[in-house]
Amino acid sequence: MTRDHGGNVSEVSRIYGVNKEKLIDFSASINPLGYPPGLKEEMIQGFESILHYPDIDSFDFVSALSEYHAMRNENILVGNGSTEFFYLIPQIMKPKKALIVTPAFSEYEKGLSSVGAKVSYFQTLEKNDFALDPYALYNKLQEGFDVLYVCNPANPTGALINNYDLEKIINFSHLYDTTIIIDEAFIDFIEAGSIKKSISLYPGLIVLRSMTKFFGIPGLRLGYIMADQTCLREIKKHQIPWTVNSLAQRIGAKILKNDEYILKTRQYVAAERKALTAELKTIEVLKVFPSSGNFLLIRLEDSLGLNGPQLKDSLIKENILIRDCSTFYGLSDRFFRVAIKKHEENMLLVEILKRTLS
Length: 358
Ligand SMILES: Cc1ncc(COP(=O)(O)O)c(C=O)c1O
What we know:
By secondary structure, the chain is α/β, with parallel strands linked by helices. It contains 12 helices and 13 strands. The chain folds into 2 domains: 9-34 and 260-357, Aspartate Aminotransferase, domain 1 (Alpha-Beta Complex), CATH 3.90.1150.10; 39-255, Type I PLP-dependent aspartate aminotransferase-like (Major domain) (Aspartate Aminotransferase, domain 2, 3-Layer(aba) Sandwich). 37% of the residues lie in helices and 16% in strands. Strands 2-8-7-6-5-3-4 form a 7-stranded mixed β-sheet, sandwiched between helices. A hairpin with a 6-residue loop joins strand 9 (286-288) and strand 10. It starts with 8 loop residues before the first helix and ends with a helix. The relative contact order is 0.18.
């Protein structure tokens, strides 16, 4: 069974013999409001476009991104989800030594290993709520790395690095000639936290974005990079043509203009994150970590006779799927992650957790 990702609802229902339709998926951190309204109609209207090859430059989609981020088209490159770039960038850069701030998304390491890079880890610590210490990272960078991966806010911890500290980290990387890749897959929930504007200052800074989480479209596959023009031109030269299909391009351009949905999502997730955190904190055997994403990292008390994988198994019987985090480098089998979902679903999770852990 694939253990590296959440959201494997079909697989879980097959293995555990539970009804897929009844399973409430807290394991994948996707917008609880679902995809923006009008998407299906847009898809149907654009259906005839599949008779032609997609626009190889995704011009309309890139232009919509450029408007959304107030950035030039030349600084944006789109792809088939941001995961495409976790493989493509190492193939081009061929890094020998890479540093990943952990715990982290597994695809960074997989992409790096596919080109034989030696991967080291910079561990953020539970005692600091997994906040990144820029000076400790600075010391580590002195060992010399070709590339550094940082996720902001981090998945699965939810820890956010403020712009001031992030600028410092970028500066340190620049000093040591280390390319820095900042994965902002969850930053749309707090757009002001994005470091995108710094790409004009640092040619070695690559910002990765995903439309999967915030816009609720994991199956459509849309992601992009923001970086210096020369760097992007090089990446594009090696990119497989037409990785973003016509319908995805059309939808991508459309949803960025839906200000109402964007605002509603930010407000809803922030309010529900607060409410769910408060409720979970009433369960004594749980420690809930502060999060800036649409998910929460939670730790089971050591004295409890139940670990994360066991809790996952027992919750599946209640039609609840959580993300057991024991497969993340740097986390023990005591950790699990839950997505922020609709209010009723969040409260149901709390009720079932209270019953299971009492
Ligand atoms: C931190 C992080 N970055 C990137 C991705 C990949 O997103 P995409 O769907 O755009 O490939 C994920 C998916 O789970 C993720 O958790």
